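In this section we walk through a basic example: taking a raw amino acid sequence and producing a predicted 3D structure, encoded as discrete structure tokens. The instruction is simple. Fold the sequence below.
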Amino acid sequence: MQESVFDENVDYLYQVQTDLEAVEQLKKEMNEYRIQEKNLKKSIASEEKSIQDEIAQTIKRRKNEIEKVYDDQIEANKAKSKAVWNKRDKTKSKRIGERVSYETSELAEENRQLQVELRTLFKARHLPSYSRSGLFYALFMTKRAWEFPVLILSILIAYVAVPMLVYLICAGALFKNNTKDLPLMCTLIVSAVLFLITLIYVIIINKVKIRHYETLLDGRHIRDQIAANKRQMKAIRNKINKDKDDSQYGLDKYDYKLDELDKELSDISAEKQDAMTVFENETKQVLTNEINDRRLGHLENMKARLDSLEDSMALLDEDIQNSLLAVANNYGAILGKEFCTPERVADLISLMEDGTADTVSEAIAAYKGAGR
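The resulting token sequence is shown next.
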């Protein structure tokens, strides 16, 4: 049988070529199926993701819309509460001020009378108005704790800061072009300023303090009484400010309104929680079902097409395997694997058609002899 096949003419190779091309055509169809399968699987995955994304986005959007409705009500409630609290605080502050004024009115009136008494006393004794000031008593009749720092600071200003300033003015402006006489002139001017300050201080001591010492002592007693009254007024103010009992300030209408707003806030919060519970337990599933009902049909169609395509591929693959087996059985054992391709068979046919060979065996020999 092998010899008879090798003695066949070109018609035998035409048959072989036809059978091999049929197998290649089946393989080509299989490649096209695979491309379709790949694209269809990609489309299915994309559609599934698109559906899940739409479900997630729709649920998130609806949830945010529901939450916003309640959050807006909560914010409005808080804004109302804040406004009521502000009014309450203003009213309380006003009535605390009225209470402080009332409870310190006697002390305030006493201080007013003491101020009048102090002015009258100093005017009657012909003392200058500045002698009633706290600075005067701090500089010339130092006694109270706060007056000592004032005295020390005044001394530093008068005997340190002022001379330094005078010296800088002299060196930088008055005598900047006369460096030769600069030290002497600046020293003289500073000394004159210090002398003037000391002279003024001594004159005030002699003209005011020594001459009117008893009057100044009386003024000190009056000032001490005024200061004591101020401390007592401050203590009363602090006590009132620390008092936690608001009942005496007539704030009931604000408290009642705040209680109403608190109850309203609790109700809104409870309604929001109920709405969120319903959304999680029911609405989410309704939204999911609505989207699935609208879009799953198209997805199922694509999956059905994929199933049908895979069935066709399975049948085609079976045909390919059978065809390959038939080629191997019918031609492979005789021609050999190397000549069981459409290209090699076409080469053998060309050798026989151009007269190089008359039989299959001659064509094979000529092909091999050509070193192909």
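Looking at the output, two observations stand out. DSSP finds ten helices and no strands in the chain. The chain has a mean pLDDT of 86. In the next section we compare this with other chains.
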